[in-house]
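Saturday, quiet lab. Running sequence design on the structure tokens for the scaffold JK sent over.
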């Protein structure tokens, strides 16, 4: 009997996610693989049955077996299914991620495969089903998250699903690194930052021991990476070449304006094209020996004028929004022409 588990972070509070998940009959609102759903019984209690209609026209039914609101756990069993499986049981658990406004969602499934069906292929198909469900739920929740939280940080700032967060940094831009601790904010520039993992999304950034921002990160356990624009060239160079020890008013003199996202006590730089809030994965050896910091992305946002549908759209945006890439000696390049490989 294959036993599968898919765990991922959603940048929404656990209670907000649970209010959606516990509506057992409404899964079609957010799962991309289900075109329609309904609850056969009057209410969602243990023993209730839901009917699911697939895009192929096939229908399956699932019975609710576990509903524990306090623990935020829901379990169900497939009863009628077109899939070549039997004894299919699954569950979803929603737990808060400490010190953030995000949560961890764990999807589990186990089942027997019918004779003549390749077990590995079926396991892959079910894993994809769980993953697509998570991504659909995350997109559904993020669609109005900022407005519901009363955020007024800018008309073009929109959430980015964590499953696509790596794309914000995948093109190798110079980044601004910001952090806060004990009432002190700081921002620095870094040229060596990149993605490390997809799910949960992780990033790396090299921060020298002399940087004041480094101490704030180590003490608070959080930092943000943001993608400065061509319009912020002078700002980026200034925060990258002036320390707080030299100039306590460094941020003011560089023209840095800060804001926050609801639920995160991390300063963000206004005017950038993307922002990633990261929880430090403490690796003392890497930090001390290589100045290498690893962070798990727990929140991501982008300027919708230049990042849409999970992709950068520089060719459609004003040139001032292009990312900048540091070479040396004060020389930068702005990102250039888009090219696509054709089959």
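Result came back. Writing it out in full:
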């Amino acid at each position: 009997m294959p036993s599968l588990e898919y765990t991922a972070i959603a940048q929404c509070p656990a209670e907000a996610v649970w209010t959606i998940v516990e509506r057992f009959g409404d899964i079609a609102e957010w799962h991309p693989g289900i075109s329609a759903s309904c609850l056969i019984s009057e209410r969602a209690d243990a023993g209730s049955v839901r009917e699911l209609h697939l895009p192929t026209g096939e229908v399956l039914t699932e019975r609710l077996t576990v509903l524990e609101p306090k623990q935020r756990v829901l379990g169900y069993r497939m009863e009628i299914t077109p899939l070549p499986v039997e004894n299919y049981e699954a569950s979803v658990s929603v737990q808060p991620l400490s010190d953030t406004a995000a949560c961890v969602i764990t999807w589990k499934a186990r089942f027997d495969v019918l004779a003549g069906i390749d077990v590995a292929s079926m396991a892959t198909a079910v894993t994809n089903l769980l993953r697509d469900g998570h991504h659909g739920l995350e997109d559904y929740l993020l669609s109005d998250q900022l407005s519901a939280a009363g955020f007024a940080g800018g008309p073009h700032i929109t959430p980015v699903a964590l499953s696509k967060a790596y794309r914000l940094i995948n093109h190798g831009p110079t980044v601004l690194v910001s952090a806060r601790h004990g009432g002190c904010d700081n921002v620095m520039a870094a040229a060596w930052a990149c993605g490390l993992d997809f799910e949960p999304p992780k990033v790396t950034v090299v921060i020298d021991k002399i940087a004041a921002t480094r101490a704030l990160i180590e003490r608070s356990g959080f930092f943000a990476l943001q993608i400065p624009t061509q319009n912020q060239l002078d700002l980026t160079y200034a925060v990258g070449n002036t320390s707080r020890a030299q100039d306590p008013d460094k941020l003011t003199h560089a023209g840095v304006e800060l804001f926050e996202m609801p639920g995160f006590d991390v300063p963000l730089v206004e005017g950038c094209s993307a922002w990633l809030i990261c929880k430090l994965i403490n690796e003392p050896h890497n930090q001390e020996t290589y100045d290498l910091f690893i962070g798990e992305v727990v929140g991501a946002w982008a300027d919708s004028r230049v990042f849409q549908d999970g992709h950068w759209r520089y060719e459609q945006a004003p040139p001032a929004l292009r990312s900048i890439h540091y070479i040396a000696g004060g020389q930068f390049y702005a990102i250039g022409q888009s090219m696509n490989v054709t089959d």
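Notes for JK: Residues 146-153 have pLDDT under 50 and may be disordered. The longest strand covers residues 85-96. Ask whether to fix the surface positions before the next round.
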